[in-house]
UniProtKB/TrEMBL annotation:
GO terms for biological process: methylation. Transmembrane segments: none annotated. It is an enzyme of class 2 (transferase). It comes from Micromonospora sp. HUAS YX12. It comes from the Bacteria. Residues 41-136 form the Methyltransferase type domain. Gene3D superfamilies: Vaccinia Virus protein VP39. This is Class I SAM-dependent methyltransferase.
Length: 281
């Protein structure tokens, strides 16, 4: 796999964030109740968190991502764990996979970043075999990463127009509509809370900066414009507002929505779906 960045996701040190997101991949894989007979596709797999877990349960697993740097890290990780996983370079809105090839479709903070939400949902539906299960995790609106996006947005180029903020995938009503537009049915939508522990606020700020490729990509320009230190100072103030000291640790929390969905034509009533919605834990 070519390891030159094709997108800003391949710049910076995303792996350090990916390690901290493992509990979310574990929750997604558990929610999918993966069996060895399942064919699993992990969309926007990144460094392969969910794909590695699925493959370690014996499932035939494919990880797809449009960033070659991520795939080369994922490939190395699978090799080190002696796991056979197919890694495919591909865009979430035009997956390089045949119709009906997946019994389980996973995407952890992945498909939410596709520019065209309806097209991405159509691709999720297209690769589902009859009766397939989907499990998607997405940051909820206003939580840590979406809020950080607003802080750094003042310093970054305007992103291309898309279907709307990625956190729509973490909004229960919006995700219901996005998936319904592709004939998929939400069967549960549960909010969870992820805790990120650091030695102090400075270490938290450093991780948020270093793992954000779209921020790192602008560092030289912002240095030249004497604005880089302002960006870091704004982020540090943001981290101070969002975090909390817990004995000798500094903790950031972020809520995400874990959505299960299916291709089945019998949709749960909205009350059933709502009943599984809990405030962040
Ligand atoms: C926040 S990372 C999540 C990675 C991984 N799923 C995890 O849990 O750590 C987002 C990933 O989505 C990929 N990605 C973003 N937009 C994509 C698109 N339109 N098509 C395919 N991959 C995409 C990025 O390259 C990156 O690896």
């Amino acid at each position: 796999m070519d390891s030159n960045p094709a997108t800003t996701w391949g710049i910076g040190n995303y792996s350090s964030m990916a390690r901290r997101l493992m509990p979310v991949a574990e929750a997604a894989v558990a929610a999918a109740a993966i069996r060895p007979s399942d064919r699993v596709v992990d969309i926007a797999t990144g460094t392969g968190n969910a794909a590695v877990l699925a493959a370690s349960r014996g499932a035939r697993t494919t990880g797809v991502d449009f960033e070659p740097v991520m795939l080369s890290l994922a490939e190395r990780r699978a090799t080190e764990s002696a796991l056979a996983i197919d890694w495919l370079l591909g865009e979430a809105t035009s997956l390089p996979l045949p119709d009906g090839c997946a019994d389980v479709v996973l995407s952890v903070f992945g498909v939410m970043y596709a520019a065209d939400h309806a097209a991405a949902a159509r691709e999720l539906a297209r690769i589902c075999a009859p009766g397939a299960r989907l499990v998607l995790a997405a940051w909820m609106p206003g939580t840590l990463l979406p809020a950080m996006g607003r802080v750094v947005g003042d310093y970054l180029p305007t992103p291309p127009a898309g279907s709307g903020p990625p956190s729509r995938w973490g909004d229960p009503e919006a995700i219901d509509a996005i998936l319904a537009s592709a004939g998929l049915h939400v069967t549960s939508a549960v909010s969870h809370r992820l805790h990120l522990d650091f030695t102090d606020a400075e270490a938290a700020t450093a991780l948020l900066v270093d793992s954000a490729g779209h921020v790192v990509a602008e560092r030289d320009r912002l240095h030249a414009e004497h604005r880089w230190n302002d960006l870091v100072a704004d982020l540090r103030a943001f981290v101070d507002r969002h975090g909390a000291v817990d004995t000798d640790r500094f903790v950031l929390t972020s809520d995400y929505l874990l959505v299960t969905a299916s291709t089945d034509t019998v949709s749960p009533t909205s009350t059933e779906a709502d009943a599984t919605l809990q405030p962040g834990r």
